[in-house]
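Folding Query — how this chain folds
Tokens — whole-number codes for backbone shape
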Amino acid sequence: MTGNFKRCVELLEGNDEKVLGEARFVLTKLCENILNFPTNEKYRKVRLSNPIVMSKLLPASGAIECLFEAGFIETDDGFYLPKDVSLSLIQDLKRSIDNLSSKIVSQEPNCQNKTEPMSRQIFQNSNQTRFFNEIERHFEDVLDLEDKKLQARAKMLIPLEELQIKTMERMRFIQREIKTRNIENECSNIESAEENFTMEDLLLVQLINWFKCEFFKWVNSPPCNVCSNECSFVRVEPSKNPGISRIEIHRCGVCGNDVQFPRYTDPNMLLTTREGRCGEWARVFTLMCRSLGYDTRFIVDKTDHVWTEVWSVAQKRWIHADSCENAMDRPLMYEKGWGKKLSYIIAYSKDEIQDVTWRYTSNPEAVKRERNLCSEESLVAFILELTNRRLHSLSSVRKEYIVKHRLLELVDMLPAPPGCKKVEENENVTYEGRISGSLAWKLARGETQVTRQKYQKWIIPKGTKHYELRYFVVKDIYEVSIENNKSLLETRIGWQEGIAENEGGIFRKEESDWKMVYLARSSDNEFGFISWTFEVNDENLVMSSLKLNALIGTFHSGDVEWVVEKFYLETSETEKIENNSENFEIDLKKAVRINIKAILSGGNGELAWQHAQLFRQSLNSSEKHSMLISISLEKR
């Protein structure tokens, strides 16, 4: 057997009888069609739009893994078997599926003590060899990011002064918040609270946001270089260039032109192209972190994803940083948000290798069941062997530094003692599915789980006569002014810090070419919404009226709809505003709480998400507010 179908079959066997039976039938039919008609292109394509695929293959754990192992690759709308893939892999897949129904498990009481068959030993050794070769290759490749000239070029591309200014603003805001909170709580540990972050940590937040929103571009399929229309994946061709892993061929749906999309691994070239998928993203972002002096690691997830880790001096630990998702310090995102079944996650730096799988799971027992490429002892021994080779050339001071880091990390990943609960992450944190990549890309990996993110509401304090909330999309801050016995001012940084709910992958987009910024829904969502909640904290007051002024941008059939929900002491009602309104005024009828929702929808084609924009504003208008919400109050 040339294909590694053991793990896939084991996953299939874990499904219930009905799901397993339907998946076996579809996989068998796919194999038979390809083997009987090897030159017919239609049998080599599996489209996610096919209802049979959606209802019978995707629900079955292990089914999509079988396709990958047989040589299928992802396309924008499903999976495709390239012509250069050996049909022996399809034969092996069919044989494995056929054996599922006739497989007999030995019931001998002492069978677990018998010597393992030689064929299985060879099979496992082959898996281990390939896995270990991958580890060694990644450990060598990470040294490419240590080239000083390359790092200097990367650093020149970073708007460092601009990011440092934003970092300082964020630092001052956090310090004010800490002092205010401590004074209100009559606490005296202000200094210890401030020790939890540094300028370096906050600069990293600005760096990853800039990298995601302005510098790098995700490519599902390149546009046609003749007519600029949409292309779709056709096949993969090998590359003789060592800086290119493979060349994807995409075909224009209008003029039929074939477009090459080289998958570059050369970081120097990627600084020019500034586009790709997660491999390219993580490689360049890791390089940029190294160029700024951060201790950085390149993280490879065996279940098909890569990202970065950065050492925080202040927190004395490695921080997860995924540039594709603009996510930091959310290691459980893949398991809880994307629904991944993790197995091996390996970290590579210029100094060491580390198995960091346990940082990224809250269910280690389930992960252990997925780790079957080698024994745990052999993996630890191999990683130590490669690390010791690299450490041998380092100074004694650097060796001591690395060893100390390793000890701190290992302790951090140890399970909690019996009877104790280890808090991996804030239990109130919610997770969304993957935001980068096409819908097909995410469906193929089962990474489309969506959960609503809930944040906080705005409390109108006692004695308030008039309440105003302003949002500045360019600076990404909120400001509140309150008219009462003593005028107050509140500031919050970040659009997410002021919302009650959002759905549809809402994100803040900066267009460096057009010099514009706005909020929009993600590309695979037909609609998205964002809402703000206001509540009166005075039993003697109610809301009398609401005025709203907001900048919007709609194109083609894009639409922005406003909805205001009014909550009274015992009842509630909803009022819809005329679509695409930038200004409106309504009677709140003595409401004690309101919810203002902006719904983004409509648009045409692949860029439909961009045709409904909230707070569209020039980057040169930083002092002008993008939204003004005015609430007047009166006695109950």
About this structure: Residues 238 and 246 are 5 Å apart (CA to CA).
